[in-house]
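Key idea: predict the complex, not the pieces.
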Amino acid sequence: MKRKITLKHIARELDVSISTVSKALKNSPEISKDTREKVQAFARLYNYKPNNIAISLKNKRTRNIGVIIPDIVHHFFTTVFRGIEHYANDRGYNVIVCVSDESFDKEVVNMELLANGSIDGFIMALSAETQQKQDFNHLKELGEQGIPLVLFDRVTSEVACDKVIIDDQAAAQMATQRLIDSGKKRIALFTTESFLNVSAKREAGYRRALEKSGLGVDDNLIIRLPHQFEEETLSAAFFESQEFDAVLCVNEIFAIRAMRIAQELQRDIPGEISFIGFTDGLLSKYANPGLTAIAQHGEEMGRVAAELLIDRVEEEDDLEQELPPYRTCIIPVSLIERESTQLAPSKN
Amino acid sequence: MKRKITLKHIARELDVSISTVSKALKNSPEISKDTREKVQAFARLYNYKPNNIAISLKNKRTRNIGVIIPDIVHHFFTTVFRGIEHYANDRGYNVIVCVSDESFDKEVVNMELLANGSIDGFIMALSAETQQKQDFNHLKELGEQGIPLVLFDRVTSEVACDKVIIDDQAAAQMATQRLIDSGKKRIALFTTESFLNVSAKREAGYRRALEKSGLGVDDNLIIRLPHQFEEETLSAAFFESQEFDAVLCVNEIFAIRAMRIAQELQRDIPGEISFIGFTDGLLSKYANPGLTAIAQHGEEMGRVAAELLIDRVEEEDDLEQELPPYRTCIIPVSLIERESTQLAPSKN
DNA sequence: TTGTAGGCGTTATCAG
DNA sequence: CTGATAACGCCTACAA
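Result:
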């Protein structure tokens, strides 16, 4: 097996110095046409490719970006990831992924590992545990070390950095309003425990819509389900004990499961009960009936996050140039209407 | 912002040589207790961490593994990825992902990029296009360069390397047999165009079961759908034109969509028609009725792939030791029974 | 036109 | 016990 060839090999074979080879390969006018051609031919023949690691060491730039997400088997994150990956590749960057599994410790460990030279910057969504603990020292340290960071979706105001989010509150408010506009009076909310930033904001939007419309909030219509808990009795009981004609869910799985319970109880969808879920994933699309969903446009989110990050990484090269202030980009959501609702036409 | 600290900085501050610092940090007995403690204290204070890149350059080992998959927004690949990531992390490796988007060119470009020193080995599933073209030179080259490769799921016999697969043929045969055992006589197959290796094998298993049982194969009951094509008329027409009492689908989406068409035609599931799909993902689990599915245990597959790869990467360190022959691991599948079938109890 | 030397950060060898 | 030196592969300012 022919091991990777280096400048040194070429130099030795051709009986020139390493720097001559290096320059010749870059087509430097310093080198005679003759030598250039000789070197280039040889390099092509042996399929020479510069060693990324050596270049990284020299340039102190790896062209790798680190992505840390709570869970990879999750449609939304996966979609964002695709956006990141595509954009990064287009700009010549590779992506190193670590999964925090919603654990604070894994998040910290992974970041420290990558921060020691493996990457030029991070894109991440906070783990549930990190949000719960409200401990962001590992993120603040990045700033001190001059490693750019972009947070997306699960962000915090405690850390100064670029951010990409959707306006969760406005989205929930819009969805709730659309349900109200379609004549629904008693709208339930299926949400998670509230330490998740996004859930809290979605709840706020839901409340706001109800208040503004004059329907008012009935706290009995809000059910808080454990985050990853697979059990139906809680929600089934909720269906028995409360009266409602529409449901807003903070995620897709809650919506699918709620819809299924309704079907088992022989409720007509969307006539008796309408459903809207956050996250427009495969489940919404292929549900029967199709689930009306708030699309978060994860791919776009990833694209923007990667752009913010790479721009900043590359700005840092222009030494001591004033860096632009941190930005927060808000990705617009859209409501994908399917059979689980019968909405009046939107006003805009 | 305090930039990353290096051995050199420490050496200068403490007025000792770089090599002394290096040794002291490794607790080398060569160094006096005094110096060791002084150095270690200083290092801790300034949170010194060795630079990964420099170490990679020196060791010619990056502790990164490259994963190339056709699509990240795909439950099965995502599951395999999780298995890889977890196992790799446990052994101190990071994962660099590239997505081929089912394109041959992207596969080649990504691999070449990473192969220049960024990774110690590859884990990949072939893109559709690569399988179609049957061009595997980029993979063969890895062998020549001494870069270990593990193929999973979408493999080829053209390349000598470690492989991890499920026995697609046996799985399809088993599923078909179970349908037969439950009394079904006319079993349809929904598959893709046949250049996908796995589809071909699944079809073979389906045929084998029908032949062995004496039912025989009716080619009219096999429908070939475009791989990523989102249209229902083809399959709807199939439902109209053919009589069948069970359906085996080579993937989850086909199954969900077929099931939905059946529901729209008011067919009783599983009484009139039973359904089984490959890939036990979210859609199968949350479908209504739940879809009986062949679980490929992607996470286990990823774990095994990562183990094969890392073992081989690390074996290569033990210079000139005879490398073990290439292995092909077969991950057993299992049938997850849900409401879309009414199977007789399995014989084993 | 070509080559030398130094450096990126680390480690290993060997000399002091 | 400590330090100088060379090496990993590449680049570049400066010398020849």
